[in-house]
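Board work, copied verbatim: F-box domain-containing protein
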Amino acid sequence: MINRLWCGTAVPTLWRDPWRYSINYYNKSSLYSIITFYLSDDIKEFLTGEGIQIPDQPVAFDYLSFCKSINVTVINNIISIGSPSTYNQFLLQKEFYDLIIRKCSELKHLNMISIKHQIFYFPEAKTRLESLCELKCDTSIDSSYFYGLARICQNIQRLTVINKVVKANHGIAKLIEAQRNLKYFEWEDDFEEEYFTEEDPYEKVLLALEKNAEILNHLRIFFLYVEDFEHTLPQKIFPKFHKLKTLILEDFIFLNQEQFKTLVYRDLEVLNIDHISLNAVSIMIENSGGQLREILLRYYDYLYEEHDFDEDSLILIRKIYEHCPSIERLSLAFSPSKQHFIEFENLLKVCQNLKSLLIIPYFREEKYEKVYEYGEELLKILIRSASTNLREIRFFDQFKFSLKILEEFFENWRGRSALTILTFDSIYGREDYVNLINKYKNDDGVIKDFRCELFRRYIYF
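↓ predict structure ↓
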């Protein structure tokens, strides 16, 4: 419907991974028609006899020949178009997976969450799965499935595991251990019920990761179940991940502050850790190789546990501009003292690539009466020294801005990149503030967005 050259170029690109788009696959009957077109006549006849809808629609391209991925969840959504029956959908799943594996010249990406068929037994599966480089799975799948994959798939570079149960899944550990080129690993616990298990659910996984320590670049871990075991393995294993570029640890309580200080990652670009002291962060930054682009840390929950917060936060600010000149995204906690403002301005002057900034102030009670004064000083520093690359600022409510000062700030920001501001202070929902903000949203795009979130957690990156 446009021109043939454009169409011939776009179709192979779109169909390389046709399941990745943010669309409602439940009602994509055209996709269902395209896939069923490839089924053999005898299979179509069998499925029709079972009461499954099989459209008779020709296709303009050999679409599935371009496909390099399988997403079980999305394909199951498309399959539901053919029949509401669970049994019929089970039949269709088998035929669809078999078909896609046969038609794909090589399989690169597999999202097998909620899979019910052992696809590695399908004809040609071994040839296709050998080229797999990205896998997303969950631990509700039986271990035997992963043992089967471990025999075939040994060149996975990106592995994401959603942990649905506390019980250890030895198959997952075996699959991790079998990899020769694992660069990206994510583990996310996703369960709510109370569980009891006699076996540490993480031990085998951590030991398998240790075998990949010399090649792993990206590590994200979110462990929930920690109550009944002494987890000493992280203290032994984490210092071995020398090649890490990304370290994301959510609610990770397996390392104490002294142990965090032993982590030396010279290639680190992204540091995102919950529950870590300012002092430990400063040492990790000093031990990094100067390539950090993102430092996203949740300071707020434990600010009040810091014995020397003022001094430690000053040291942290200095470490950032001394060792991270290329920083692009930063969460920063500091007191509203004269020295802190000076060091904050030094940071802005040095870190000219900074695009997103989260500011978490730490005020003692006696300073609350000066929140507008501190807010004015902060905005003046941003106008004087912030890079033109700065496009997003997030504030906690201890910094407040009067209408007059906020308008002066917007006026002085004119000519820079449109700014997004996030806060959870309800004062900015007042009519006079809303009118001012809307004025600068519509006036040369000074403000791209100004949002007041209801909860602190939405302010964090």
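The two ends are 42 Å apart (CA to CA).
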